[in-house]
Amino acid sequence: KDSQIIFLEGSPELIAQRMALRNDHFMKPKLLNSQLETLEKPAPQEILEISIELTINEQVRTVLAALNLG
């Protein structure tokens, strides 16, 4: 397999919380619901799904382990 799609999964509430902390971001928080409604999540067999509730270090370790790189 030459590539792997990493899909970051999170609740709308957590995503909204994080968006509210951003300064000068191009996407306004009021657009979140419409973006999530139109999101077409890839089929489970096509992706490696990682929770955004994990720390960044945990996310990286999970990806590396899944790809047999760490």
Give the radius of gyration.
14 Å
What is the N-to-C order of secondary-structure elements (H for helix, E for strand)?
Answer: EHHEH
Total strand count, please?
2
Low-pLDDT runs of 5+ residues are: none
Kindly state the mean pLDDT as a whole number?
91
Structural class, from secondary structure content? Answer: alpha+beta
In what range is the share of β-strand residues?
A: 5-15%
Largest sheet: number of strands, sense, barrel closure: 2 strands, parallel
Distance N to C terminus: 17 Å
Q: Count the DSSP helices.
A: 3
Estimate the helix proportion, in percent: 25-40%
Tell me the strand order in the biggest sheet: 1-2
What is the approximate shape? Answer: globular
Description:
With 70 residues, the chain is α+β, with helices and mostly antiparallel strands. Helix content is 39%, strand content 14%. The chain has three helices and two strands, in the order βααβα. It has helices at residues 12-20, 32-38, 56-66; strands at 5-9, 47-51. The radius of gyration is 14 Å and the shape is globular. The mean pLDDT is 91.
